[in-house]
Amino acid sequence: MKALRLGTAVESTFQGGGGNGMVPSPRLLAPNGGEATHHREEGGNNGPSPGLTALRPTKPRSGKKLFAAPAGNKPPRRREPIWRGLVFFSVALNIGLLLSLCVNSTTTLPHHNERQEEHQACLINLDDAGRSGGKTMASQEEEPVPKLAAAMAPSTGKPAVTPESVINLDHGDPTMFEEFWQGTGSAAEIVIPGWQTMSYFSDVGNVCWFLEPGFGHEVRRLHRLVGNAAVDDGYHVLVGTGSTQLFMAALYALSPPGAPAPMSVVSTAPYYSSYPAVTDFLQSGLFRWAGDASSFKGDTYIELVCSPNNPDGAIREAVLSSESGVAVHDLAYYWPQYTAITRRADHDIMLFTVSKSTGHAGTRIGWALVKDREVAKRMTKFIELNTIGVSKDSQLRAAKVLRAVSDAYELPKGREAHRLFDYGRRKMVERWSMLREAAAASGIFSLPEETSGYCNFAKETAATNPAFAWLRCDREDVDDCASFLRGHKILTRSGSQFGADPRYVRVSMLDRDDAYDIFVKRLSSLR
Amino acid sequence: MKALRLGTAVESTFQGGGGNGMVPSPRLLAPNGGEATHHREEGGNNGPSPGLTALRPTKPRSGKKLFAAPAGNKPPRRREPIWRGLVFFSVALNIGLLLSLCVNSTTTLPHHNERQEEHQACLINLDDAGRSGGKTMASQEEEPVPKLAAAMAPSTGKPAVTPESVINLDHGDPTMFEEFWQGTGSAAEIVIPGWQTMSYFSDVGNVCWFLEPGFGHEVRRLHRLVGNAAVDDGYHVLVGTGSTQLFMAALYALSPPGAPAPMSVVSTAPYYSSYPAVTDFLQSGLFRWAGDASSFKGDTYIELVCSPNNPDGAIREAVLSSESGVAVHDLAYYWPQYTAITRRADHDIMLFTVSKSTGHAGTRIGWALVKDREVAKRMTKFIELNTIGVSKDSQLRAAKVLRAVSDAYELPKGREAHRLFDYGRRKMVERWSMLREAAAASGIFSLPEETSGYCNFAKETAATNPAFAWLRCDREDVDDCASFLRGHKILTRSGSQFGADPRYVRVSMLDRDDAYDIFVKRLSSLR
Predict the structure, then answer these.
(1) What is the C-alpha to C-alpha distance for residues B173 and A206, in angstroms, rounded to an integer?
(2) Which of B38-42, B123-127, B265-269 has the highest mean pLDDT?
(3) Does A198 touch chain B (CB under 8 A)?
(4) Taking the C-alpha atoms of B96, B99, B104 and B109 in order, what is their torsion angle to the nearest 10 degrees?
(5) Is the ipTM of this complex over 0.85?
(6) Final residue of a domain: which of A166, A197, A223?
(7) Is A259 a domain residue?
(8) B412 CB-contact burial (10 Å; exposed 0-12 / middle 13-18 / buried 19+)
(9) B26, A205: Cβ pair inside 8 Å?
């Protein structure tokens, strides 16, 4: 019953730094405008409205039932039992009533208007309704200031979707994985007492002095389990505030400060839309975006190799080769739920993130495996200057999460139901199957060919099931697929932002079930 | 019994980006070198050595006894009861034995050698020995893999101090506050289930879309309680990965992208040593360090105003004034433990951080209060491009911590013992008194004059007790105070790094009691 209804988000470069990038347009949320700014920001003061409170208990927490099917099995898609239909109806009714009070229209099409971002006064928080077991943030309401506890219950601030909603699949927000983690009980729960991890330092003897040793350990353990990347033979583990910070750190580390010109940063198109934006937004004298690697002329460069590739899921290798060129491998999606693990990657710099491996985007934890000690030190230096290290709380949490993933595979008996990669692959296979059917039913879209390989981790042949769909609109009168889809209340990211044809769009495959279901249904109806 | 023994740390500019900055020199830790790199990084695999395990239980957790003295009272310094002496002796004996096995010498003076940072094979972790109540990380050892739980127990990786140790007061690591938070029980403890806060988004309706509403609420509440900064009348709350990221965000937001030359960034000397380093390390075309504000010529600039000032504790105002100049106010130390709260600051951009207000440096959470909406949006854009938001886990934790601070003042009965600012002021008054006595006993040092003002928060006249001591060595044959002190195993930061006379040094006043005590004793003996 949870989902999102956001406005379009256009990734801006530094020239348009005032633009909204990931920030959703507010028009969809609250086209009514008004003087609600402070009411919104101060919402915690007032506690939830009776309407919101009444809504909470109706949210299904189905974590306990998620793993009835044996792990690795691929059940037919049957996700509409009667109780779920009833709950859906009940929640939809409540939401409908509430929204009719709060916003003028839930079906207004996205219209970018930055001045109204804060005018959404009726956000619905369905995330703090409770869970299948253990202590929750919401359960702290027995403490002296119940209103505050309620206000602190984490949320995306996103209203629920309805069949009429605008569906935002522009970002790769990995909320699909919430369902899995709701089923793991306390295995991935973390408790941090007030006095813990107060120092800047985590491990003064390490190159990366702010790396929590427990996190570094779980990173190595998981890679050994999955077999997707080398971690022995001298690799350094570095932690970053998401892999984006590590990406910048790599650019910094690989660009000699005294060079006559900025280092050229390239990647084969279609390339991840953030690469040019993040490279150039500070107009650094050290490095500069130089576009598509396949048309680059020169010997000195940093080539970004994303594999499986964002946006199109392709398995990639570096296309350039030179003595003075270097590669950074972004392996965010090189995990068994998305692709076959065909080899143990052993590149000089490899980037990973919990956002895509486990779905914990809000934790903002990425890591790099780095061969060269001097490069590792210079990357560490970047993070020191940029943010004086990385949140220890998030590192501890990420360590606990990664540990739960490994434990489910390595510890005996009773853990099969909690195997992340089995769950993820099952979901992705199911979603890709739905998407291909929808595209076929519509007849106006095409998708990349399915490829497969023998997965050393799963010990079977596995198809690629990318985290994004690289969708092409084949209708001859459609030059701009993103606009066409937006006209049908589906928000995606245009191919033009990836250095590619705007007849392509990138579609996130990782949203929650309800949003994904509506998307697929709507897509299949387009002609 | 806890403290640190680190090497010197010289803040480097981007030209020397490969230098060590905050990274402690390893020589002090392990001058023996060897092939221990992987042993260190893999420590979690092996579990703690018997020696380390044996040491843990000896660490005193004195949280329960900290608040015997009534809040606001200033007890005479009497912190050596018999039990403490015995425990000290016991721990010192154990540490001595252990260190004699692990390192060649604990008294070697710092010698910068970057190649040996990872050669420290015998770090002593005293931080996970338990605590006064509630669930700890260490208590999770009952779970299936006890060794891992032990390895994940957070730590600074710092060995304990002894009377012979090198004392590192180069960084403002606020571990003094651990003692306070050990005494607050579960008030500041946080529990995060595995499925929570997985989305990138926190509050899609807000300018700062990654701000957890509960954190924003507690920030405003605390400022209203303390009266140190305006939060109403349209101020936006932005969250950052520490205030350093917000500092960079402010530079980005205030530098017009199309300007003919980079914006000049200035601050009156002595200025915080990170300002030039952070401004220039990426060689941005948007902004550039331009030195001491008091000698700046020009109309267009960003003036950094740190008040109370790092390093010298002075209360500051902007010294430049021009139509096209702007100021950023760094108010990290404008809290009642450090200075009298004489007015409610209401500048255009004000920066704060939990590192200095509550002592939670490892949490990496800062916030900005920003008047102008467009500036707030552009600062948010910086953080989006730099790290795609800020750790939600840390925001939730910071919210809980700030809430505990406010609750102790606002809720009735029984909370007087847990009032952070009362505790902090008592400690700082005590430490400054000790330091002034030591400087007087030595005869070769001078300190800034004590100033005072009426504190609107404490409702009494209060002296300034800065978080750093700006110490001058008056001996005529000493040109470089930092070198002189290093020769006596006291590590400080040279005045030259603050744009000032190297006869000055900055000394952190926020380390743990044992390290501070040794420092003061040693200082008083210098002639």
Answers:
(1) 18
(2) B265-269
(3) yes
(4) -80
(5) no
(6) A166
(7) yes
(8) exposed
(9) yes
